[in-house]
Specification:
Elements lengths: L6 H18 L2 H14 L3 H27 L2 H13 L5 H21 L3 H14 L4 H24 L4 H14 L5 H10 L2
Helix pairs in contact: 1-2, 2-3, 3-4, 4-5, 5-6, 5-7, 6-7, 6-8, 7-8, 8-9
Length: 191
């Protein structure tokens, strides 16, 4: 005689199945599973958990599609956060898109000579995808500009210390803290 499985085990199995649908990219099936668990869950805590997972899957799907088609940075960040809440199954895929979006925005900042903003975006781009060649190349251009500014500030430091400090600060905002030029500029700010 086969014994019925306890309600709790059935809920756990269903969560695993719903997560499996999510991981494989079958978001509509994951939504169906979590809706069913939300209404048929054995306990209140299972229903609450199903409600959270349902919200996360919907948030991920909506924002991922929007971000994927338009490169919308805000949508991609929301998709990334929802994916992290679900265990990070699509971390690489979303990370590459985020990296591309940050690189694109950083390039616009670089062209408009907003160097600190460009530096922040290139750092973020490489944080999400360290193999992003375009971000690396543009960061190299930004570093060259930082080097020129650093040289300008070293000449100015004896003539106009206030302007030199502003330029050294700008250099530190443009580069990652691990960069040797960042460290040199930082020393001039904190003698």
């Amino acid at each position: 005689v086969r014994r019925p499985t306890p309600r709790r085990r059935r809920g756990a199995r269903s969560f695993a199945e719903g997560l499996s649908h999510y991981r494989s990219g079958d978001y509509s099936q994951a939504i169906v599973f979590f809706r069913k668990m939300r209404s048929d869950g054995a306990t209140r805590s299972i229903r609450r958990k199903a409600k959270r997972y349902l919200r996360w899957v919907k948030t991920f799907e909506r924002n991922f599609r929007r971000g994927q088609s338009s490169g919308n940075l805000s949508a991609l960040k929301q998709a990334h956060q929802a994916d992290r809440s679900m265990g990070g199954a699509h971390r690489r895929k979303v990370g590459k898109l985020l990296s591309k979006a940050y690189t694109s925005r950083g390039e616009r900042y670089l062209k408009s000579k907003s160097f600190p903003a460009a530096g922040r975006d290139f750092k973020q781009a490489m944080r999400y995808d360290s193999s992003n060649a375009k971000a690396r190349k543009l960061m190299g251009k930004l570093r060259a500009k930082a080097m020129a500014l650093y040289k300008e500030a070293t000449v100015l430091k004896d003539v106009d210390p206030n302007d030199a400090s502003k330029i050294f600060r700008k250099v530190t905002q443009m580069l990652p803290s691990s960069d040797p030029l960042y460290k040199k500029a930082r020393k001039h700010l904190n003698p």
